[in-house]
Structure formats: structure tokens, C-alpha cells
Design goal:
Elements lengths: L7 H33 L28 H24 L8 H24 L7 H22 L4 H9 L6 H9 L15
Helix pairs in contact: 2-3, 3-4, 4-5, 4-6
Length: 196
């Protein structure tokens, strides 16, 4: 008897059969596993890993509860204070020159550090749902601001410093929206700067 040639239809039939067998094998394996779990009486609580031992660091602490609007306002005011002060100190410095450039760069680096701390602080809290979108957007803005300050602090010349300084988004309309939502008074207006 002559064996039929392996034409396209026969190849397709073999592939279908292979897929069917794989699906059947997966289904049987899943059924066996579920049966074994049922026979042993395990529950998800029985197989959960125990929590890691506390190291005393803030990262291992239990998550904070969602802040109330009042608590969120207090947290925001505390978090923003150092960043605002560092920004004001940087902006109030006299015009940069070759002789005081190092001092200016140090002020910019301090503003970057304070802004990073502000941004990280925002992420550590559980904000009320109604302000979370504004907090998230402000966090992104603060990361851009910190990167801008870092570019200023890395400048090698007064010209590079001034060019980088012009690009720092030192204020944002997000802060006034968030302060309003939290029932806080408007923050100080940064002279000569339009919110971005």
C-alpha cells in the first residue's frame, strides 16, 4: 500500500492535532494540580510566606492609611517647606559671576536635594482619592524640577549656568490647585516667573 504524500492539508492536520494534544495536556495537568490541592486541604493562608522581620527602616513599616484632607494639608505643608525655602534661597542669590559660581552651584544642588526629598515624600503618603491625580502630576513636575536644578549645579561656566537656570520649572500651577483642594492658603508667588 502506498503512503499518501505529505501535502499541505496533512501538515495542517498534524499541527491541529498537536495543538489539541497540548491543550488537553494542560487541562489534565491543571485538573490534577487542583485535585492534589483539594486532597491536601491547603488554603492560600497555609502557603503564604511569613512577612520579613522588621529591620526598623521606614521601608519595612506597614503602609500608612489614606490621609484625611486635613492630614493631607498638614503633610503637604511640611513636605513643601524645605523645597520652597531652598528654591527661594537659590533665586534670591546675587547674579552669578565667575567668582561666585561655586556658591550658586551649591545653592542649585541644595534646591535639587530638597526637591527630590519633596517628591519622594509625596510618594510615601497615601493621599485622598480626590487629590491623588494632582499629587501624581506634581510629583512628576518635581522630578523635572530636580533634574533642572541638577543641570544647573553641573554647569561649568556662568553662561552654561544661566542657560540651565532659565530652563528650571521653578513653579507650577499644580501647587495652587493642590493647595486649594487641601484647603490651604495660596503659596507665595515667585516674582518674575509664570507657573508652568
Amino acid at each position: 500500500m502506498q503512503r499518501p504524500a505529505d501535502g499541505p492539508q496533512r501538515v495542517l492536520d498534524r499541527r491541529k492535532a498537536g495543538r489539541f494534544m497540548k491543550r488537553e495536556l494542560v487541562g489534565i495537568t491543571a485538573a490534577v494540580c487542583l485535585s492534589l490541592v483539594g486532597l491536601t486541604g491547603c488554603t492560600s493562608q497555609d502557603v503564604q510566606a511569613s512577612p520579613p522581620a522588621s529591620t526598623g527602616s521606614a521601608d519595612s513599616a506597614a503602609p500608612e492609611p489614606v490621609l484625611t484632607i486635613e492630614g493631607a494639608g498638614e503633610a503637604y505643608a511640611k513636605l513643601s517647606a524645605a523645597s520652597n525655602a531652598a528654591r527661594e534661597k537659590w533665586m534670591a542669590a546675587p547674579k552669578p559671576t565667575k567668582s561666585n559660581l561655586a556658591k550658586h552651584k551649591k545653592l542649585a544642588a541644595g534646591a535639587a536635594d530638597a526637591t527630590v526629598a519633596f517628591s519622594e515624600g509625596l510618594r510615601k503618603h497615601h493621599w485622598p482619592a480626590e487629590v491623588q491625580p494632582i499629587v501624581g502630576a506634581l510629583d512628576e513636575h518635581l522630578q523635572e524640577r530636580a533634574a533642572g536644578y541638577q543641570r544647573v549645579a553641573a554647569a561649568g561656566t556662568v553662561a552654561e549656568y544661566l542657560a540651565a537656570a532659565r530652563e528650571v520649572p521653578v513653579t507650577s500651577s499644580l501647587t495652587s490647585h493642590l493647595r486649594e483642594a487641601l484647603g490651604l492658603p495660596e503659596s507665595a508667588v515667585v516674582k518674575g516667573v509664570s507657573p508652568r
